[in-house]
Amino acid sequence: MYTQGLDQAGKEQREVAETADMLAAFQARIDAEEKIEAKDWMPEAYRRTLIRQISQHAHSEIIGMQPEGNWLTRAPSLKRKAILLAKVQDEAGHGLYLYSAAETLGVSRDQLVGDLLSGKAKYSSIFNYPTLSWADIGAVGWLVDGAAIMNQIPLCRCSYGPYARAMVRVCKEESFHQRQGFEIMLTLCRGTDEQKAMAQDALSRWWWPSLMMFGPNDSESKHSAQSMAWKIKRFTNDELRQKFVDVTVQQAEYLGISVPDKDLRFDESSGHHTFGEIDWQEFMDVIAGNGPCNKQRLEKRQAAHDDGAWVREAAQAYASKQAALAAA
Amino acid sequence: MTSDEALVAYTLRLADNALVLSQRMLETVAAEPELEEELAHANFALDFIGQARMLYTQAGELEGQGRSEDDLAFMRDENEFRNLLLLEQPNGHFGDALVRQFLFEAFYLHLLEALTRCTDEGLSAIAVRALKEVQYHFRHSSQWMIRLGDGTELSHARVQASLNNAWRYTGEMFVADEIDLAIQENHGGPDLASIQKLWRRDVEKTVAEATLTLPDDEWMASGGKQGQHSEHFGFLIAEMQYLQRSFPGATW
Lengths: 328, 252
Ligand SMILES: [Fe+2]
Ligand SMILES: [Fe+2]
Description:
The structure holds two protein chains of two kinds. In chain A, 65% of the residues lie in helices and 2% in strands. By secondary structure, chain A is mainly α. In chain A, helix 2 packs antiparallel against helix 3, helix 5 packs parallel to helix 7 (193-212) and helix 5 (134-155) packs antiparallel against helix 9. By secondary structure, chain B is mostly helical. Chain B contains ten helices and no strands. In chain B, helix 1 packs across helix 8 (178-187), helix 5 (94-115) packs antiparallel against helix 6 and helix 5 packs across helix 7 (153-166). Chain B is globular, with a radius of gyration of 18 Å. The model of chain B has no long low-confidence stretch (mean pLDDT 97). Chains A and B meet through helix 2, helix 3, helix 6, helix 11 and helix 12 of A and helix 1, helix 2, helix 3, helix 6 and helix 7 of B. One fe (ii) ion is lined by residues 61, 91, 94, 170, 174 of chain A.
């Protein structure tokens, strides 16, 4: 769930050409569960909402490579090293499909990357937290990929065809990541006291930021109602967060580590866990750029972009020379 | 040195090459010049880790002292590693890392090809599998050599400097010591003099197509195959081994 619906949407003014009849016909297609394809007519606001959401999701995949990549050189076994690298590679692949899905809506990857680097476009707040121990790699897989799946499974039925199809592929891989992360946690929890303490520390630090991944409460969520009507979203932020808590608390019990929430309890009557209030100030701070790693993440992405410029230019110059030769 | 000891030592060298190169490659994950290259780069690093794992497992079995792939990767000191100096060199910029990859793969490709015909079945089976992977890598690194060499003036100058800097580390690949000779004599292993000819032919061809100049063979560094490494190698090993060393006996 890498799209928290955070950007200023701006005034989404309908173009003059969008008559009430056209909008009604479009909504009728949505209501009939038809998939909207790239060449189909769509309201401008629908297009813009999707570009915002898909590109935020793509950026999150790319920035997310950093906290996980942070442990590649230090992974404690060759098998774990290979699994982690395959995961980081999957995230790069997800970024690639998602940029392609966004491109079907008439924006270029260069534009989207430019918006990320300038700070105009957002990415998931979760990746602004640091991975401080090996257990964090377990916790990120278990909790972050776990939360991502909660959000992305319904996106496989999103009304926009190219996004829905990209999500089917992405979800399969994310569920591998979640299981691998849980397996790291399980190994630590069954290991030495020091390893178990490492696992507990990771859960303590990642729990609340993971709940924040679902975005603001429904009462505060700007885009929810329209996105639900368009069937871009199928469940509200709070519904998904509740589902995540219900599943994850049981998994933590199985691991034998505790969720850092003194208000957490199982409510027999509803069959759900009730949980404490999220620190929304922290959430807003991280979104505003003041999380532990915001600056570092963007600087690293910018540096990679700048350091690679001469390489991309060379590749382009070579391709033009070859094209000129072929034409001659 | 018995024939079996030589085979263990030889297999460990191959494993160390694959692991040390992959470890350097991991340092640039999430910092490649474009997303497509990010995917290719991770793929190649995964291939090298996979090769290292097969080779360490095989070396551990041959040695018969119960050492696992992880014991061999994480519990040996830096002077017990027998990788080529070329592979431990810091990444530098994209052109530096590329040249390191290109020069090694041009050698490794022919080495593996020869090893597919060696009489040790375990080693030849690993070579068959690794050869397929490295053929693909080498095509990729050669194409990048050509793009950078025949790209812009800047990229040409940069990659030429990378080539000049890395050249001194290529001599070591072809200096046969008693382990190389034992594998050649007892197990039908590679003849490094013929590998050198094939290497030179392939490198010259790509360098020419890239409009680059082959450096002169001047002083050549050596010592990696005997466990005498560069100063920065200790840091690579310390970083890689830190968790295993901090929590001895733990399972991960
Ligand atoms: Fe992903
Ligand atoms: Fe993932």
